[in-house]
Amino acid sequence: MSCRSPSLSEMPLGSVLGRRPTSHRNICTKVLLAEGRETPFTEHCRNYENTYKTLQTDVQNLKDQVQELHRDLTKHHSIINTDKMGEILDRSLHIDSQIAAQYSTVETVRVMFEEIWDETFQRVTNEQEIYEQLHDLMQLKQENFYLTTITRQISPYILSIAKVKERLEPFQEPKEHHDDRTETMLKIYE
Prior knowledge:
Layout: H1 23-34, H2 40-74, H3 82-130, H4 133-168, H5 180-189
Protein name: Ring finger protein 207
Coiled coil: 45-72
GO molecular function, one term: Hsp70 protein binding
């Protein structure tokens, strides 16, 4: 009688969380690191990638060893060395604690990066709001256009009134002597 359990090769590593690390994420990380700019985020990515690759290799090695044990047990009906099984289990528990520690680190760093991202997003949003210079210039241009139009419309009337005033000046009584300030004020008033 052989026992039938799912083979580890049939169970993808990412099946526990429902997804595998995507190649897109790996490519984006490589591009980010290749840019060469040193930021806290790129440093985190570099450290994470190194740790992740090490953990991934360790898990793959364990997977290979467990597959071998599973094959020996189910196909060859061999007696399994309990010491070897204990070593694999100990190594598996050790890797599990390393993964948990890395997970905790990533969670902690994520909170820090989310604060930085929020601040950066808010700064960019503020800069975009401030950078309404084109709109402001267009608004000034529109106001200037209205002023130019109004000036052109009233210009003939002003010229006509000026000509009439010029013709009437010889018939007006002589002006009293005013100081320059009074004259200036009258001109401003007119």
